Structure formats: structure tokens, C-alpha cells
């Protein structure tokens, strides 16, 4: 029997959202915060064209995409680091600090990958419970020790959709030593409409120990191609690039991301439509009697406690896959209006049962 690292025995596997089908064949996947839209024709064309070069390795530096991002956000190209999805960039970040004794702080509950990546990289997770479904930044600052190497702030937070506002973020960052990296995970940034939520990029411009994590998976609709990026000061981006597996971002993904940046106006109109649906879904749920925190992402969070799995089961019977967190609540992505209506009907029926 080969011997594996002991940590693998205790690490739960990452649970990805799965589609479900109702008895009469309906299926709406609202469990992975994906874009409900089909790919844009211009992006499909770019991918088809890139596919003609699939017998060659991709550009390891993803030069065109890196430059397109640098131009889009008005940052030096040296401040951009790419990965195969932002979860891979997060993994690379853990690799940059991962040595025994190092501590990484994050809120809990938050993105499920953080504890897995922490365990894999050998760092110690310091989980700080949410307060009212929101990052408890004072407690997170209190948790800093001389061993703290990195802090994740997921803004908006997955799975609650809640945000950290500008003043509280500034007060928090003022308490973080300069040798601790703060990663603002902004996977859902494009869905934020609250003007009081600072754009992480303006924070990074002021503070070299703050880096921003973004993805093409959500607003840009490229979840299946796996491309995400970090924008951070040169030493941070350079460290992340060093931990990248060679050729991690394939050239279909690179081409699709470049084409998506070129088609950004069209994609952001879709985001506006999702935001409208999000607000409609939340208001309808509240009218049904559920408690749903204000969400700035492309999903809603319903705290259900012991009823969580029953709720998810009732949705599944209607062909709606949601993401349950047993004993806590369910995260439900915003889909197209038909999917949302099907979900809302299932939620109402569960409420009245
Ligand atoms: N960060 C957060 C907060 C997320 O919710 C997700 C996806 N669920 C990711 C990062 C990773 O997304 P991707 O790897 O597709 O870029």
C-alpha cells in the first residue's frame, strides 16, 4: 500500500454542485454560481480559432491576456498573475506561504476551498466565525499572531453574499502588519451595486500587502475553461507566478478570456440582468417569510438550520439544484427567470407545507 500524507485521511473532498432532474425531466442548476447565459458567439469563435493550435503548448506567460488585463485595470503587467481558475490562484497563494507553523486567517463560513487548500499546503487554518452572516473584521484582526502570513477576505462572501464596507475594511487593514498578505477574493465583484463597497483594486493601489483575486468564471461566463487572476504588487504577483504549474492556463481559456474582455460591455449587461433577478428573488423570498441577508453576489443565502437538507430535497424534486450546507442553510444561485421562478415556487411550497 503506498503511503500518503496523513492530512489526506482527514480532509473532506471538495463538493461541487451537481445538476438534478425532476421526475418530469426539468433541470435547473442553481448550485455553482455560474452564468445562466450561453457563451457569446464572439467568444466561441475565439475558442474555435485557438483550438486549431491545440497540438502546441499554450503561451506559458499568457502574454496577450496578461496585457489585456493590465490595460483593462490600468496596472503594470508585472502585477498580474494568472491561474487555472481563481481557486488555483488561491492554491498558488497558499503555496507561497505554506510552511509548518504559518497561519492563514479567513472567515467561516466562507469559500469552501480555503480550508482544503490550507490543509494541502500545510498551513494552519484560523477560522473566524461570521457575525450576522458577515465578516467579523475586528475578530479577524484580533486573531493575528506573529505566525500569521495571509488573510482571506471574501468580498462578497460565498455563501452568504454579504459584503465588507469601505470604512470597516480600512480600519481592519490599518491593524494588519505590512508583512501579512491580505487577499481580497472578489470572485463576485461585478455583481456588487452597493457604492459603499470599495473596489479591491483601489485598495491594492494604496497598500502593497493587499492583492485582489478575480475570475472569468462568474460574470464572464467561462467557468468551464478555468481562468482566474491575481492583481497585486510585483513581489506578490511574482511569487504567485513561481508557484504556477507550467502551462496551467490553456490557450482556449486564454483566447476566451481575451475575447471576453473585448466583449465586456455585452457581458456586463448580462450581469445587470442577473442583478435585477437577484433582487427580485430576494424580495420574493422575504415576502414568503424567509430571512435572506442582503446579497451583492449572484446568489442568495437562506439560513435553514435543521431544515436545510429537506429544503434542498424539496427543490431537487422540482429539478432545482441548490447548494445545501447541512445544519446551516442553502445557497441558491441566480439563474434565468424560468429557473428562478421554479425555485421560488418550490421555496413557497416548502414554506407552506
Ligand atoms: N472564490 C470564490 C469566493 C468562489 O466562490 C469561487 C468559486 N466558487 C472561486 C473563488 C473560484 O472560482 P474559479 O476557480 O472558477 O475562478
From TrEMBL:
Enzyme class per UniProt: transferase
Keywords: Aminotransferase, Pyridoxal phosphate, Transferase
Pfam family, any one: Aminotran_1_2
Catalyzed chemical reaction(s): an aromatic L-alpha-amino acid + 2-oxoglutarate = an aromatic oxo-acid + L-glutamate
Names of required cofactors: pyridoxal 5'-phosphate
Aminotransferase class I/classII large domain location: 29-344
Gene Ontology biological process terms from the UniProt entry: L-histidine biosynthetic process
InterPro entries assigned: Aminotrans_II_pyridoxalP_BS, Aminotransferase_I/II_large, ArAT, HisP_aminotrans, HistidinolP_aminotransfase, PyrdxlP-dep_Trfase, PyrdxlP-dep_Trfase_major, PyrdxlP-dep_Trfase_small
EC numbers: 2.6.1.57
Residue numbers bearing the N6-(pyridoxal phosphate)lysine modification: 218
Domain of life: Bacteria
GO molecular function, one term: histidinol-phosphate transaminase activity
UniProt key word Transferase: yes
Family from the record: Belongs to the class-II pyridoxal-phosphate-dependent aminotransferase family.
Binding partners and assembly: Homodimer.
Function: Aminotransferase that catalyzes the conversion of aromatic amino acids and 2-oxoglutarate into corresponding aromatic oxo acids and L-glutamate.
UniProt cross-references to NCBIfam families, sorted A to Z: hisC, PRK03321.1
Name of the molecule in the record: Aromatic amino acid aminotransferase
Species per Swiss-Prot/TrEMBL record: Streptosporangium becharense
Gene this chain is encoded by: pat
Amino acid at each position: 500500500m503506498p503511503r500518503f500524507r496523513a492530512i489526506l485521511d482527514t480532509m473532506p473532498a471538495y463538493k461541487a454542485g451537481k445538476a438534478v432532474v425532476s421526475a418530469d425531466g426539468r433541470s435547473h442548476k442553481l448550485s455553482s454560481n455560474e452564468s445562466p447565459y450561453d457563451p457569446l458567439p464572439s467568444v466561441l469563435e475565439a475558442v474555435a480559432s485557438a483550438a486549431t493550435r491545440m497540438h502546441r503548448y499554450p503561451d506559458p506567460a499568457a502574454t496577450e491576456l496578461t496585457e489585456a488585463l493590465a490595460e483593462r485595470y490600468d496596472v503594470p503587467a508585472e502585477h498580474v498573475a494568472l491561474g487555472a481558475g481563481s481557486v488555483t490562484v488561491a492554491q498558488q497563494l497558499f503555496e507561497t506561504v505554506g510552511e509548518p507553523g504559518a497561519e492563514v486567517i479567513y472567515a467561516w463560513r466562507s469559500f469552501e476551498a480555503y480550508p482544503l487548500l490550507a490543509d494541502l499546503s500545510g498551513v494552519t487554518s484560523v477560522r473566524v466565525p461570521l457575525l450576522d452572516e458577515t465578516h467579523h473584521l475586528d475578530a479577524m484582526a484580533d486573531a493575528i499572531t506573529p505566525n500569521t502570513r495571509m488573510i482571506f477576505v471574501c468580498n462578497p462572501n460565498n455563501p452568504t453574499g454579504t459584503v465588507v464596507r469601505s470604512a470597516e475594511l480600512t480600519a481592519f487593514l490599518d491593524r494588519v502588519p505590512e508583512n501579512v498578505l491580505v487577499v481580497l477574493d472578489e470572485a463576485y465583484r461585478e455583481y456588487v451595486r452597493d457604492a459603499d463597497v470599495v473596489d479591491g483594486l483601489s485598495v491594492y493601489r494604496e497598500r502593497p500587502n493587499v492583492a485582489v483575486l478575480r475570475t472569468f468564471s462568474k460574470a464572464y461566463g467561462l467557468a468551464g475553461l478555468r481562468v482566474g487572476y491575481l492583481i497585486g504588487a510585483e513581489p506578490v504577483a511574482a511569487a504567485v507566478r513561481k508557484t504556477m504549474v507550467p502551462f496551467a492556463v490553456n490557450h482556449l481559456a486564454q483566447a476566451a478570456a481575451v475575447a471576453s474582455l473585448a466583449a465586456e460591455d455585452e457581458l456586463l449587461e448580462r450581469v445587470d440582468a442577473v442583478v435585477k433577478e437577484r433582487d427580485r428573488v430576494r424580495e420574493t423570498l422575504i415576502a414568503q417569510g424567509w430571512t435572506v441577508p442582503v446579497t451583492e453576489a449572484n446568489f442568495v443565502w437562506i439560513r435553514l438550520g435543521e431544515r436545510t437538507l429537506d429544503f434542498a430535497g424539496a427543490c431537487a424534486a422540482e429539478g432545482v439544484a441548490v447548494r445545501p450546507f447541512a445544519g446551516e442553510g442553502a445557497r441558491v444561485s441566480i439563474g434565468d427567470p424560468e429557473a428562478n421562478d421554479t425555485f421560488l415556487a418550490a421555496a413557497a411550497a416548502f414554506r407552506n407545507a
